Structure formats: C-alpha cells, structure tokens
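Supplementary material to the annual report.
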Amino acid sequence: MPAIETIGLEKTYSVGYWRKRPKRALHPLNLAVEEGEIFGFLGPNGAGKTTTLKLLMGLVFPTGGTARILGMEVNDPRVKAQIGYLPEQPYFYDSLSANELLEYYAQISGVAPRERRPRVSAALAQVGMAESAHLQLRRFSKGMLQRVGIAQAILHEPRVIFLDEPMSGLDPIGRREVRDLIEGLKRQGRTVFFSTHILSDAEALCDRVAVVHKGELRGIGVIADLTSTVEARVEVVWQGDVPPDLRALTAECHVTGDMARAVVAEPQLDAAIDAVRRAGLRLVSVTPIRATLEDYFVQKLTPHEMAEARA
Amino acid sequence: MSPRVVYIASNTFREAVRDRVLYNLIAFALLMVGASVLVAQISIDIERNVVVNLGLTSVSIFGLIIAIFIGIGLVSKEIDKRTLYTILSRPVRRWEFILGKFGGLMATLVVNTFLMALGLFAALLYQSHHFQRADAYLLVVLYFIVLEFMVITALALLFSSFSSPLLAAVFTFALFIIGTFSEDLRNFAALAHGTTRWAAMGAAYIVPNFAALNVISSVAHDQAVAGSLVLYNTLYTLLYAGTAIAGAMLIFEHRNLK
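Predicted assembly:
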C-alpha cells in the first residue's frame, strides 16, 4: 500500500468576477509514494505544487480523481492524526510563544496530556529552537518561524510529513540543518513529501522526484534515471580566444582572462577539439558534465515554455 | 462537546486577550462610563438615569465594535496567515473550528462586558453612594447585551465565511442598524399593502430583532423587565445565532481554501 496515492487528481478553478472562466491548476495527476521514501515534488513557482499539497490536505476539493494517504481518503480524521504539514511561508499566532503554540497544536492533534510537554520540548530541540521556546513569535525571524513550522509538523510524530518549500527563508546553515532533519525523519521510517523549486535541495535528499510544470506532471522517477535521459555534455577548456568554428557549435562559450571554456553536446566533442587545434590554441582540459535535475527540467520544457521562461 | 472545540475557543480567547486594541477599547468604554458621572452632575434629578443610560450604551457600543471587528477576522485572518492550514490538516473538523472560534470570541465578550459592568456599578456607587433594588435590573440589561453580541458575532462569522472582511463588516453593521429599527419595520409592514406589506413583513422577520433586546431606557427609569421577555429573548437568540452559525459551518464546509 503506497503512503500517498493520487489517481487522476485534478483541480480547475473558476476565475474572473462577472464572467467566470475555468483555469486548470492541476491536470489529472497519477502518482504513488511508498512508505519511508523522501519524495520531491518539483517545479517552478505556479507549477501546481501548492495546489497538489492543498488537495492532499483536504484544504481544497478536487474537481476530479481521488487522493489517498495510508490507504484512506484524505479527509478521514484517522489520516489527519497521522500526517504533518508545513505550509509555504507559514505565519503563526504572533502573540504566543513557541512553547504555547506547539502545546496548542499538540492539543488539537490529540496528543495525550501527559505526553504534550515532552513532545513539545523534543520537537523544539529537534529544530534547534529549544532556547527560544518562551519567546513570543512576533520576535522571530523568517528562518526561526520556518523552524517552528517544521516543529509543528513533526510534533505529533506523524507517519507522513508534507513540507511545502521547507528551505524557503533559511540561510545556508539552516538549509543544511533542515536537510539533516529530513534525513533523520527518513531514518525513523517516516515518509516525507516535500515541494521545492530549488532543484539542488531535491538532488541532495530525494529517493524519487516528480517534476510538474503548468499543472502537468512532466516526469517521475529516481533522479539518476531521470538525468540519464538528458543528452550528455562535455566541458572543453583551452587557452586563447574562441575560434569561429567552435562558436558555431555551441552558444555556451565564456572567456575568463586568457582561458576560454565551452560546453558542447557529447557527439560534437571531436569537432570542438578539432576547432581548437586548427586555431593553434592550447587545449587545457576536457571534462564530462554530470546531468542535473535542472538539465532534465529544462529538457522537459517546450520551446514556447523556454521562450516564456527567458522573457 | 468535542475537546478540540474547547482548545480552539481557549486559543481564540488567549489571542484576543493579548490584543492591545482590545485593551484600548475597554479603557475607552470605561472612560465613557466615567464621563457619564460628570454629565450626571449637570443633570438635575436624573443623575442616575444619565449614568445608567450612558454607561450601558457605552458597554453595548464598544462590545459591538469588538464583536464585529474581531468576528469578521476570525476566519479570514486565519486563511490569510495560513494558520488555518496547519489546523485543518490535523484531526479538526471544519465545523469544530467555526464553533471554537465563536466560543472563544463569546468568552472574550463576556469577560469584557463583565469588566465594563464593574466600571458601570462603580460609577453608580460613586454617584448615589449606595446601591438600590433597581440596580439589579441592570444585570438583565447586561444579559441582553451579551445576547446581542451573540447574534452579532454569529452574523460576523457567517458573512466572513464567504466574503472579504470589509464586506463582512459592512453586512454585519447594516444588519445591526436594520435590526435596531426592526420594530419600525414591523409597524411599516402593518400600514403597507400588497407586495410591499409582504416584503416588509418578510424583512422584519429575517433581520435580527435587536429592538426587543434593548431595554436600556426602561431600566434607566427603574422599570423591571418581564420574566417572559427574558425567556423569549433567550430562545430567540439561541435560534437566530444557532441558525447563523449553522449557515457559517455549512458554507465553510464546502469552501476551497485557496
């Protein structure tokens, strides 16, 4: 049984004030996330990531299809007791302290009264906020609020955790800590489903990823499998100017000081090296470039979407 | 009652209690009550009448402001700040959230009314140097004021469950004004003919009957309030506020939280 499963899940909103017209936020989405996985849900801003998460949380209602968590309908209260959710850019009751806020969340999550205090302290310690436990949230920075947001999502020890842009607002050290935290959750056997537009975060963490764009699923799988479909490229470095023959091969040529660098598709490597030699320049290095999720994502864009992204 | 409703209500109460705006309003209301004593000093023979009238009106108006302005933000603020998302992703049903919010604001209003009533009784004591039997009727007026807040809060919650805070404030305030003159609407219906009569009669029954809840002037003249009126007003408020809350729950149950 998958931890998360969507079958033809879709959402169309009505937009406009007088003359309503349909706007599809999510095309029929089919995906399954296994228990214990870290699953990345990737895409640029406005891709449909948050809509999908809201559908899974039962905050918006689907116009088609179904979603199940741990084999149950998403609005089943038994499911709600076993999931944790961090919304994008969370903001909490700023008159409360972190302790009071988490105590409140523990109450409405159904945590037994005797367990509340230890769970609150443990969750705050886990996100590195134990020392700010009694401080009012209005004094917190964006990064601190993000940590409290993560603490409330893991407080009741849920089996499946949904994080919407969990690294947003964090400095590099904070991001590293959240990455460690997510890995720790995986070690505890929990399923983590997180959305991000920062592809390097997904590469560092995820067992599998799904790529969405404009509400459509463009690809799903293990990162290595996805990136293996990207055309291999090679970096060529030499001393001197860029020969015209080489410039005709690729647009990616850069000159820094007396060194020049070009990135070419693997089949064009011989032609690129020949161009450098014909111009009598000294070849310095030839290095294969590992395909990244970003390359995969760019490959999945249509020419029209690429033009839009550049505009 | 579900314990989650109680938890949400206590949190709403705690939040309201920590809001500085609330203290400003209470302080201003107490100032008005205090000012009534000064006005009473230049009102020969009707000193008590002035203190009671001005004092109770202040309690009612400032409570009303709190009920409308906190009431309209109960749902929309939670959506804007996304705090609602972290609540509804837990085992909390949407109707529990609405009921908890309503309970929390009502608790806040009851405590505020109690504090302002203390101020009013202190003003009366200062003015007359002793309490009299008729002062006990003030408790009935205060009870009716709380009933009025209950209807206003339920309406604010109903309107804010489907419209923007500004529109919800306008709708609630408009209904308060029309409801205050509901007796006039009934009298107009009695004099009118045809469709106008039916439309006016329908409107008079739909809008809240705040006129029946306002007994300030008769109590200011030391008149007792009939026990039957207390019973009818209680039942009417429970029915009216209950219907409005049920409407808010129904709308909120099907609302997409974009």
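Chain B has one domain: 3-253.
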